[in-house]
Amino acid sequence: MDAIVFLIFAGVAVVCAINVVVRVHPISSALSLIGVMGSLAVIYLLLGAQFIAAAQVFVYAGAIMVLFIFVIMLLNTGAEERSRGAWMARLAGTPLLMALLGILSFVIFWAFPRRIGVHFGAFTGGTVENIGRAIFTTYLLPFEITSILVLIAIVGAVTLGYKELD
Amino acid sequence: MPQAVPLSWYLILSAVLFTLGVAGFLFRRNIITMFMSIELMLNAVNLSFIAFSYHLKQVDGHVFTFFVMVVAAAEAAVGLAIILTVFKNRGTLQVDDISSMKD
Amino acid sequence: MEHLWLIPAFPLLGFLTAGILGRRLPKAAINAVAVGSVFLSLLWSVKSLYSLWPLEMAHVERYFDWIRVADLRIGCDFAVDRLTAVMLLVVTGVGLLIHIYATGYMAHDNGYPRFFACLNLFMFFMLTLVLAANFLLMFVGWEGVGLSSYLLIGFWFLKKSATNAGNKAFIVNRIGDFGFSLAIFLVAMNFGSLDFGAVFQGLGGWPVEQSAGTLTLVGLLLLVGAAGKSAQIPLYVWLPDAMEGPTPVSALIHAATMVTAGVYMIARTAPIYLKAPMALEMVAYIGLATAFFAATIGLAQNDIKKVFAYSTVSQLGYMFLGVGVGAFSAGIFHLMTHAFFKALLFLGAGSVIHALAGEQDLRRMGGLRKKTPITFWTLVCASVSIAGVWPAAGFFSKDEILIAAYYHAPWMFWLGVVTAGMTAFYVFRAIFLAFFGEYRGDAHPHESPPSMTLPLVALAALSIGGGLISVPRWLEPMFPAPEHHSPALVVISVAAGLTGIALAFLFYVVRPGLADAAARHLGWLYRTVLNKYYVDEIYNATVVEPVVEGSRTVMWETVDVEIIDASVNGVAARARGVGQILRKLQSGYIRSYAAWVLLGAVAALIAMGFAGGAR
Question: Of C88-92, C325-329, C464-468, where does mean pLDDT reach its minimum?
């Protein structure tokens, strides 16, 4: 049962990810990315991360991707054309990616044999209460700094986009 | 007992998504698409964190994922503002034309 | 403790004062400082000798450890024995007279303070050399007097010939110094010490070398050094050129003191030479050859200072001959009397030059007998002394040497006698040309001031009466000399001297044209001698030119330009080349950068894998 759910949503995620990379128009890529995020939310649930799954949907799919779509529509650029530069990327990109994937797969399979499995419901620690406790006790400092980071980001974004009111 | 999904599959999924993100970053010319590839990579890493958090039966991975999301949001905001400015100045979103870091 | 260090310290103080403050001090102050320091040295020397009388043994004063390496200890030590005593009195005494003379001679010179500073510096080094109790300290003095000589020869540094002469002196000396250094190394290696006392004691266990051995080598190397400093064949060429310096310099350094350092050094290291008869024989040969050779050149020179310069070389040859045949005390005796009459000759020449406002050519002098009487009579005293006529001092010292030479090898005696005759001839030639006959120049000759004439008189007295100071008897404990009595030989040598004087009288007073006629008759022989046998030209062609050319083509153009410069430039070019290649990486394309990052990440992963990071 878990396996089926996992396989379905993993497949959706991969297909959408390929879409993101392959599609010509940015809007298609953005919408596919939303699909990826949704599937990932389900997979998080399988892994017992309730809060994160919810946050994924609100924050990522709901806020960040919407922002992306706004910007894409604002810029209204349309499909992209071919260009000549970045020979290195085109030359070495594919082999390197193969290498990357290969190494990672090898390591993963070597470190985590089949018997280590994921059972739905085996981990109940991903509750809001647990995460909250962790944030406000062990990780208090990063939390505070992150809030400042967000403030900086807001100020930065506003400054960059500021238009003089004539 | 339903058959357990091996942890390694989750990690493989994470690796594949990450690789796809890198591919998108390397092979696409549109800045916004490259940005979205970055988001894809971040998501892949988040998945990896959650998986390990499950494996170690600790909540720290979730916390980290939470922070990653926050930072990704901030980054998206600022990055898109920069893209807007670049577009206003250069008139193009082709990253190969915005190459004044050369020389 | 006699505080012997004060003896050189006074002139050192004089050097510092005149050197640093000289410009701002009035001439009287400089005089007081410079002359006074030498005077104080003299006083202190006398006082020390008086306290140490009768000085049977050497008196050593050790001040501090200079070098201490492994087993070798070289201290800053001064020592006084009878030999040192003679040198001290000669150096400070004659030095004092010359300093006084110089106050008059250099009175109109702009570089007055610099002159006395250098002169005092010279005194400091010379006294260090004389007082040194070990080889290395003596070498310090040795080098130092060479330096002072260079500074003073090139005193009028705006004259190219003067600076060239200074360079020549220094460089030729350096060759000799190289020999001296090698000798020092050998001594240190074989005796483990450079202290004279320790080395000479250590010699006790060495046999007398009948054939070439270590001691012979040491002796020969020391001879090289002495030949450089004391202007013997083949390193004498700098001395005639050194006449570019002011006359007091010629008198002090190149007649009375510095050039005698070589003789002193050989006398000092006599114990080594006594164990290496072959080396000692070489000393005698070189001395005799030089004496004869230089005398022949002196016959034909027209510059009064050059005549006396070659005379110095010749007389130094006599000293070397003396020590070379084992008559060390005779050589030192001649050193002393030579200091008197040669200094007098030079100072007198200076007086003549001063009287004639700079004229040095004998052919343009004449008839100065009436105009500069004091100079004339004092110079006659000096000439009589150098000619070896009884009862002047030169007679006694020269005779000691010649007699010792006869008993060593008779042919040396005969050669020496001929040289004595030539000596008398050329000296009196100079006297007759300068003081007799009609004046052939166009200056207004006048007698010199007392500051110059008084030292002349003092030296004249010493030249005549100096023979009464029996140096050989004084040096008896150190250098036992066999007593040879041979009236016949004495008569012969005096006769040679008188013959020379008579011939000179004939050629230059009675029949003045005779000399020029003889010169024309002898044609090329005369010209060769006049041109000093072209030795300088030969040296130039065989030594100087090849070295300079070799230096230019090999060292400069090949090694420096092609090899060193090329490699340095090559490294820079390589760096630039690599930079050009790496520049291509900076394409400005973000995606390329990302690709590189990816490459690095993969590489890191692989590395981690190999390092067992997965565990």
Answer: C464-468
Q: So what's the pLDDT on residue B2?
A: 54
Give the residue ranges of DSSP H helices in C441-486. Answer: 450-465, 471-474
Question: Which residue of chain B is at minimal alpha-carbon distance from A150?
Answer: B74
Task: Dump strand ranges (E) for chain A.
Answer: 117-118
Give chain B's end-to-end CA distance (angstroms, integer): 63
User: Is residue C402 within 8 Å of C416, Cβ to Cβ?
Assistant: yes
Query: Rounded to whole angstroms, how far apart are CA atoms B26 and C12?
Result: 82
- Chain A hits for B2, CB-CB cut-off 8 Å, are 1-3, 119-120
Task: Please check whether residue B11 is in contact with residue A116, taking contact to mean a CB–CB distance below 8 angstroms.
Answer: no
Residues of B in contact with A49 (CB under 8 A): 50, 53-54, 62, 65
- C135 touches C196 (CB < 8 A): yes
The 3-state DSSP class for residue C77 equals strand
A117-118 and B5-6 strand pairing: antiparallel
Please identify which residue in the block is written with the tokens 């990932």: A40
Cβ separation of A131 and B63 shorter than 8 Å?
Answer: yes
Distance, in Å, from the CA atom of C147 to the CA atom of C160, rounded to the nearest integer, reads 18
What is the CB neighbour count within 10 angstroms for residue C390? 14
With contact defined as 3+ CB pairs under 8 Å, the chains touching A are B, C
pTM (2 d.p.): 0.67
Q: Cis peptide leading into C391, omega within 30 of 0?
A: yes
What the block records as the tokens of C411 is 């042919």
- Give C260-271 pLDDT, tens digit per residue: 899 999 999 988
Please say whether the beta carbons of C386 and C394 come within 8 A.
yes
Per DSSP, C68 falls in state E
Cα dihedral sign, C90-C92-C96-C99: positive
Under the banding of pLDDT at 50, 70 and 90, the label for residue A11 is very high
pLDDT at A166 over 60: no
Whole-number Å distance between alpha carbons of B11 and C80: 98
Cβ pair C319, C335 in contact under 8 A: yes
Lowest mean pLDDT among C114-118, C165-169, C390-394: C390-394
Q: Is domain B29-97 given the CATH code 1.20.1440.80 in the classification?
A: no
Q: Taking CB atoms and an 8 Å limit, are B25 and C586 in contact across chains?
A: no
Distance from CA of C613 to the nearest CA of A (A): 10
CB contact under 8 A, B26 and C589: no
pLDDT of B99 above 80: no
Size of interface A-C (CB pairs under 8 A): 45
My answer on whether omega of the bond before C234 falls inside 30° of 0, hence cis, is yes
DSSP class per residue in A44-67: HHHTT-HHHHHHIIIIIIIIIHHH
The complex's ipTM works out to 0.87
Q: Which amino acid is at C200?
A: F
pLDDT digits (tens, 9 = 90+) for A96-106: 888 888 888 88
Q: Which residues pair with C195 in a beta bridge?
A: C134
pLDDT band at C183, cuts 50/70/90? very high
C606 to chain A: which residues are within 8 Å by CB?
103
For B58, counting Cβ atoms within 10 Å of its Cβ (0-12 exposed, 13-18 middle, 19+ buried), the class is middle
